[in-house]
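Q: Hi! Curious about what DUF308 domain-containing protein looks like structurally. Here's the sequence.
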Amino acid sequence: MTTSTDAVTVRMPAVYRWILALGATALGVALGFLVKPITTWLVDLVGSAPGPLRLAANLPPIWAVLVLTVVGAVAGLWLAHQAQVESLEVTVRPEDVRLAQNGAVRHVARAAIGEVFLDRRDLVLLDRRTGELARNKASDLDRDEIATAFERLGYPWRGGADPHEHEFRQWADGAPDLPEEAHALLRARARARTDKQAGRVAELTDELRDAGVVVRDRDGAQQYRPMPER
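A: Let's find out. The predicted structure is below.
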């Protein structure tokens, strides 16, 4: 967590990236020493081994260790970079909240925020009508640091569980408590989830919010709750 006079930033701890980078490097070193017996074992077991393993096994032992150490180090640096890109970085300021994840950056104005909380692995921001402004995976952030960041700057922090949990229901197509418009959007969203179209899922989530329905994914199914009337 980084703190200044007017902002608090919470990001993935640097130690996680070091673990990935050093762990992959160590695996490269170990594979360098073991590549020849592993390749021999695979050939005896299934009659073949992957081409890169066979190439490494044919190198002099010292070169096999050096080459695979470098490969492990490069792979570790790439993994650490990807982890940082995919991890949420949240900056809380008096005027807004900045959410950066997967190369996308979003600002949510303080005046629009009615509630902030953690829902299992997700950081959730709601508006004053309980509509969902943002939901970001935050499983690799420190939960206490997130709470401290929002509480310090006076945001309406609601804790580590969704205060509207009891209002959610699992979606069943045609359920009488939703209009057909909402069911059509939920059907489209279910198809987009199946097809792994993350952008389309996000668009339909926003359309449902505009129609007065909050939706989330839970245990492989869509759950929803109607928002209060204006």
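A: A fun detail: DSSP finds six helices and eleven strands in the chain.
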